[in-house]
Every structure is written in C-alpha cells, then in structure tokens.
Amino acid sequence: MEVVILADAKEIGGVAADAILALLDGKPDAVLGLATGSSPLAIYDELAARYDAGLVSFRKARAFTLDEYVGLPADHPQRYRHVIDNVFVSRVDFAADAVQGPDGLAADIPAACRAYESAIRGSGGVDLQILGIGADGHIAFNEPGSSLASRTRIKTLTRQTRIDNARFFGGDVDSVPTHCLTQGLATIMEARHVILVATGRSKAEAVHNLIEGPVSAMWPATILQHHPHVTVLLDDSAARRLQLVDYYRETYRGKPEWQGI
Ligand code: F6R
After folding, report:
1. Is 143 annotated as catalytic?
2. Alpha helices for the chain (secondary structure H)
C-alpha cells in the first residue's frame, strides 16, 4: 500500500488526475470506478478542468459507481446516479450509457445485484477505482461487520453513516434512506488499481486502521491490505494518527519522478 501525504485536497486531486490521465493515455477505453461523497470532489474538479483544457477525453471510457440508496424516487437529487452526473459525468464527454450504477429502485434486488456484478465483469473489470472512506472504516457502503468476501448486495446503513450523510438531506437524518445497494469488498478488490482519498481529522482513526491495523471486518477498508496496488492519498489531518508517518513521507519524497502512483 502506498501512502502519500499531500498539502490539501487540491494537491490530492492533481496527483489522482495525473494517474487517471496516464491510464487513459495508454488505454482510452479504460473502466473507471467512481465514488460519491465529498472526498473525490477535488479529483472530479481537476479532471473536468483538464477536459476543458483539451488534455483528456472520456469518450471511449466507461465507469461504474460504487453504491446507490434504495428507494429514493427516480428524480431525487440525492440519488447517487444524479450526484455523480452533476459532480463529474456531465462535465466531461462520457458517451451516453457509459456510466452505470446499481439500481436502487429494482423490484428484484438480488437480481439487480447479480446483473451489476456481471456488467462489471463483462466490461473487463475496473482498471482504476476511486474510493473514499467512512469514519467507521467503511468503503462503498460496506459497513463494519461486512463479509470480507462480499459481492454487490443490499446493506443496512449504520446510524452513524446516516447522521454523516444527513448534511445532504437538509440535516434531517430521518430523510436519509436506511438501505443501499453496494459493491461488495470482494468486488472492489478486483479493481486493478485503487486510489483511496481521505482528508480531515474525522478520518484519522479509520486511516490509521486501514494502513496499520490488523485486517478485520470491523474496519472493512483493511481488506485493501491484501490488494497489490492501492494508493492512499491523505492530507496532514487524516494522516495525524499514522505511526510510520515519517517513513511514508520519506518514501514518497525519494520516489523517482518517472514512477507514477
Ligand atoms: C460513496 C461511498 C462512501 C464514501 C464515504 C466517505 O459512494 O461509497 O463510502 O466514500 O462515506 O464519504 P465522504 O467522502 O463524503 O466523507
């Protein structure tokens, strides 16, 4: 796991965007994995800026989102499908239908989850997955206690996650759905490169466990310790509980410039 501690979200966005541009340069039809939430916004802003500057095209690329609330009406602005369209997809040149997400309105939820898994598999798999992390160590909506071998399925959101996400629902926790469809931990583990972004003090304990704790379903993100290519991009606040922080800084400083993340 590579740990990179940067000045702020803008710098994190730049480093992640460099990796995505390098991927698309070599593989214009690459498959991206997109997360919602606040953490990746600086990446999406940077990618949109580079698209505007003519430096990148997503015309041949495809993407899969991580998760979706169950039961939110099709036109609800907080459906992750709409959120990802607003913050990223509509700002660049993805082809129509190139971006898919789990169907939180499906009548047959297990069938929708199976269909999502086969769509990801059928695309050839995710080349680069962007992730945030919850304060409780969740990735996508794999809450503590999730099977480390889980696939796309329905999950109950914890009270804490609903409180954290109430900011997107006018501060009203009761408006936050109780369930979601989420890619499983085993689904995410199949992505070829994972870039996980965390900023702010509220993520420091989860980040410490992710990188330095024992692998445990109590901190679902720790499964990433078994992945061969994970890059964790942090600001100082999110890195403040890391025991080997000096070593991570020294390693990144000493990295040859030609070697991307
Ligand atoms: C969102 C998702 C979640 C978020 C996590 C952190 O698609 O899968 O795991 O990444 O809850 O959210 P933020 O970035 O808003 O702190």
Report:
1. yes
2. 9-26, 41-52, 80-87, 109-122, 159-165, 185-189, 204-212, 236-239, 245-253
